[in-house]
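Dear Dr. L.,

I hope this message finds you well. Following up on our conversation about the binding site, I have prepared a predicted three-dimensional model of the protein together with adenosine-5'-diphosphate. For your records, I am including the exact sequence and ligand specification that went into the calculation, followed by the structure tokens. Please feel free to forward this to your student if that is useful.
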Amino acid sequence: MSRKVIWGIIAIMSLSLIVVGVIQFFWIKRSVDLEEKNFDDKVIFALNNVKERLIGDAQERLQRDVEEIKFQNTIVDKLKQEIISGDKSTWPQNHRNLDAGSLAFLFNADHFLETIDKDKLHKYIAKELKEQKINIKYEYGVFSNDIKDYIIINGNYVAAAVGDTSKSSNVAAINPLQMAEYRMPLFANEISEPGHLNLNFPGKTRFLWSSFIPILLTSSFFTGLILFCFSYTIYIIFRQKKVSEMKTDFINNMTHEFKTPIATISLASDSILSPGIMENTDKIKRFIGIIKQENARMLNQVEKVLQMAQIEKNDLNLKISGIHLHELIEEAIINAELKVQAKGGSIETVFDAKKDEIEGDFTHISNIINNLLDNAEKYTPEKPQIIVQTKNVKKGIEISVSDNGIGMSKESQKLIFEKFYRVHTGNVHDVKGFGLGLSYVKAMVEAHGGKVSVQSELGKGSNFTIFLPEKFSNQNKV
Ligand code: ADP
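The resulting structure of the complex is given below.
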């Protein structure tokens, strides 16, 4: 899969995720809007019912008043008869006459507003909202257009007098009511609207969204999960891509590494077979020597690849015994020293460890040291100054191999322990290798329960440090 295709997929997937997210948001928003509309309808229905009840009450009271006045009028009529007959003693002191004035007062809509019973109103609102299954906190108030103020707030009469200080205690309640969403005109007719009932639900938005929170959370969670899986997949694709590139490099490298000895062996065998050589045993011996040497070189390469395969299969088969590290290092240095000296360099040892015995597999630990020394020599083009140092640390020994070579960048340092990785810059490619050495070192050190790390600076040199525990335990895994 080319880089372009991968980036194309990333773009499409990201776009799809964004679109799905936006659609989900709008879908939920639409549901909340619908829910709100439903809520509004229920509240308006409840308020209408409250209004009807108030009107019913007012009519009843009016009826009673009219009846009473009518009744008083009949008494007055009767009294008038009595007056005519001369007896004034039974005249009522305060009766209302059903004249135009008192009728106008009774039928005055503002008067209806004043006669609203606060307790009844409180009960009506509570009952109607309950019937509509609206169970959230609310505030309400009856506003009079005549006095331009509230006359009832949340079940209490408000002192009507202007400038009354007791009113200030209700200011806080009035303010939210001024912005109340629900407003139901009371006792309104074509000519006038004496007032209205305001109703407000402070926690309405929260209430409406609350039923969608589980859906919102679930959908966000799964969108997040998709995002995570997608990112992880992309990460794996890039990694695989890199591994496959490195494997191609490795195959090219290996072919190259084998080509030289094969060509040399072929040349040597041809030479042996050529006439005139057959009789010359010295020459035959030399050619056979070359064949053997090249063969050993190939065997060494194959061995490295096989070791890696073994590690991959977790089939290590370590032969654990007591090892004197200083002896092991000295031996490894003998092998590496020739090449170092040929470049005009030297290998120095600083054995600070008082106790150099550990438990481990001799061959593998030798290979580890050999690989590090090999690299120190390979990646130091001129006069290698290699220092091998040991010291005792808590529960084990630390060995460091430092050189004054080409060093490497921070980015490379993170990758060198990966299989097949080789630094691709500058003249590094002149140096032969499979990119397996350090991954082997890491796998083996970890199999012994140890740790490996590197400090390096481009152009200055590198320092590899390995820690090996004193005691080998079976829990140490690859
Ligand atoms: P290789 O077979 O390429 O040497 P290694 O796994 O041993 O494989 O090393 C991986 C890469 O790390 C090398 O290709 C090289 O770029 C870098 N490297 C290893 N050791 C050193 C060192 N001492 N100095 C500089 N670069 C090094």
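In brief: Residues 375-376, 379, 403, 405-408, 416, 421-423, 428, 433-439, 462 surround adenosine-5'-diphosphate (CB under 6 Å).

With kind regards,
A. P.
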